[in-house]
Amino acid sequence: MDELWAHAFEIIAGLAALFGKGIKIAPKKEYEKITRIVGIIPWLYLTIDIVTSIIGIDFVFSVLRLLHKYPAITFIYIVVIAMLSPITAYYEQKKCCFEADTSYIPLNTMFNVAGAAAACLMFALAHSIIPDFTVLKRFQIEKLVPVFISMSFILVFLYQSAEQSIKEKAASINHDPSIKWINQKINMLHLFNAYFVPVISAVYIITYTIYCRLYHITLVMDGKYILFLVITLLYFYILSMHSYEYLYKLFLIVTPGILISSVYWMSWFVKDIRMICIESGFIVVNLIAFSLRVLSRNDTLHFEQWPKGPKGFIMKWEKLLRKNLFCIFIVFIAIVAYLFIALLPLMSERIT
Question: With bands split at pLDDT 50, 70 and 90, how would you rate the model's confidence at 117?
Answer without folding.
Answer: very high
